[in-house]
Amino acid sequence: MTRRPFDLSLYLVTDPALVRGRPLEAVVAAAVDGGATLVQLRDKTADTGALIATAARLLDVLRPRGVPLVINDRVDVALAVGADGVHVGQSDMPAATVRRLLGEHAIVGLSVTREAELAAVDPAVVDYLGVGPVFATATKADAAAPLDDATIRRIVAASRLPTVGIGGIHAGNAGRPRALGLDGIAVVSAVCAAADPGAAARSLRAAFA
Amino acid sequence: MTRRPFDLSLYLVTDPALVRGRPLEAVVAAAVDGGATLVQLRDKTADTGALIATAARLLDVLRPRGVPLVINDRVDVALAVGADGVHVGQSDMPAATVRRLLGEHAIVGLSVTREAELAAVDPAVVDYLGVGPVFATATKADAAAPLDDATIRRIVAASRLPTVGIGGIHAGNAGRPRALGLDGIAVVSAVCAAADPGAAARSLRAAFA
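Structure tokens for the assembled complex are given below, as produced in the milestone run.
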């Protein structure tokens, strides 16, 4: 029951609407070369065929760089391309079903936005938790209100799993998720929308370290 | 390499927006009792968790009735609930990938809306073709213009696979798809929006037979 090793330090979540016409795989490659340690393909609007093609292009740039690719929500897309795992939210496929379909070696991540959701998390099924929003965010239209410091500390302490903070994180505020005990920071617009995604990744790594 | 037997005579495609507040599984059960021979769960807007729950409820009414359930587009949902197959369009997962992920016993359907799409159809991979639109339809916002009789006849003749017509079919016009050689009729609103889905299914069966 060996799971693939992964590093949550700088977790890049893609957003096709934010890359300003640049090829997504070029933005991702630059971000990884700047220090991104894990990449999640998130696209809630693309047709399945296009999503599979995008995932395959991302694997082409991530495999040589040794950085894992997880797919948001879509186990079918992950299976089609042989991605490293899937990240689900509370309204997506149950994490136990994701684990059953992907097998023991896959990376399975789960978003928690409230302390009460921890009770249903099975550490034998889930590899890491996405915790947030850490700050207010405009990237995710349906995002909840930001969590306060005490709540994040309690989630980190209670979870027994690696945690990555998400929501409104940028190089100017990345010290707070670190101080709260999170193992990494997940970013969307701070890298995807940056004029220089590699430099943005380097700044984020430095700010969190 | 035995595939599950299936009957395309009256193929019900679900649309959650058309059932007028009734439980989808009740509409489907009534339609099957009235003569629907195969059911496709199609819902392009639901969260994956809700889609899986709906699929499980449909299987609960379909298994005792011996009618297969195929899922539109989503191999992940089909795998999660153990549905009988998946139907894909030209922008969805490639049919060969669907077959690889679901295995030899699954039902794999593919939509064709133009004669030129037949060249890429592999009869070792695909079990049946959805052909249309047969008539103009308001149910599918992005539907193409209806195919003419000669085109449908050529697709039916060339395909070497069972075919089901779709698009604007109701009890008043179901004779034409029969005359064109199609093996069955697929309906959405003619059953889902009917005040009595069972009676609607009986009328459609009679009109096509």
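Strands of chain A lie at 10-13, 38-41, 69-72, 85-88, 107-112, 128-131, 163-166, 184-187. Residues 10-208 of chain A form a domain with the TIM Barrel fold (CATH 3.20.20.70). Further analysis is deferred to the final report.
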